[in-house]
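### Sample
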Amino acid sequence: MAASLQLNFKPLKPRLLHAKPASKSAPKFSSIRCSAATLSKSYTLTLLPGDGIGPEVISVAKNALQLVGSVEGIEFKFKEMPMGGAALDLTGVPLPEETLSAAKESDAVLLGAIGGYKWDNNEKHLKPETGLLQLRAGLQVFANLRPATVLPQLVDASTLKKEVAEGVDLMVVRELTGGIYFGKPRGFGKNENGEETGFNTEVYAANELGIDHVGCRVIVVENNNIQFVVENGNASMLWRKIVTNIASEFPDVELSHMYVDNAAMQLVRNPKQFDTIVTNNIFGDILSDEASMITGSIGMLPSASLGASGPGLFEPIHGSAPDIAGQDKANPLATVLSAAMLLKYGLGEEKAAQRIEAAVFDALDRGYRTGDIYSAGLKLVGCKEMGEEVLKSIDSKVAAAV
Ligand code: IPM
Ligand code: MG
């Protein structure tokens, strides 16, 4: 993981609560049960499984959280709520008020994926994706961290040559609640020739750019450098002026500017030159998908979306993959790694986060692969079995340490 994955822009104090008995639905792994620490902390997590492969990957991540919680003395109370297409079918809207309230009241939110063919032709306000944008806006999670790390075990799964991909460890910091996704005016109309038009607005107000502070603080920790990616428009020019001012408060940060077309090209030419890419909502969406392929599979990449306060939103960057939904073929690791980001950035539970990451790497070291990261000679498994292997790794590492 990018060494720069540390934030100090919001306090991450563990909330110490009363000792609570272990949850009844804890996974069935055994050896840690005897060594489990007394549960001393309790967190409420909202789970939003969503659509397609979402429920499958969330179920794996939930088990991993429960198991690691029992090791670290943390109780998780899960509240599962409908979101996206599942919510549309159930309630007629993609983000029911109850779901947003539950999310706001919890300590952190873990989302699977949303969307599917069934709702593709819905009107805009009734699309699952609209629910996701409403959730991000509702939680005011303006800073989206998307690490893209090429793991040594998966270097051959990269679409780039080994020598180009090896050692890549970068982070896209994407502005998440502004820009063209939310800008007004937007809509459909007619031009002076009577032709139909569609329009959106890329707009940023100076006070929306809290993202820059996050970006600078993310990278300042490790004496890293920022590539600030823009194009030549007015919103970008304002942003460039502001980020340059903010960066001057962080003398250890090396800030360079790059146009987005060049950044897209450089990412596949020489991705190791990148450390932290700070960029707007739309470019961050595109560049993070591009970066994901360098790592081998979008099925491996987690994300964290954070605001100045309140619960963070954690989700894999992949979509709902309706073509493989319900077939036990999904790669759950991006969601498991999102749970690790939740522990680290959302709850300040660094040790538990490390346990989950270590277990993922261990399962990969032991040769287990879902279809998207499979190569000859390794063990091809489905979503559930990959989950079981991660649990075994958590279990065996605890047993080894006892
Ligand atoms: C992502 C997705 C979303 C986005 C869609 C589903 C609205 O592509 O999280 O990257 O564009 O932000
Ligand atoms: Mg995207």
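Residues 54-72 form the longest helix (19 residues). This sample (3-isopropylmalate dehydrogenase) is used throughout the tutorial notebook.
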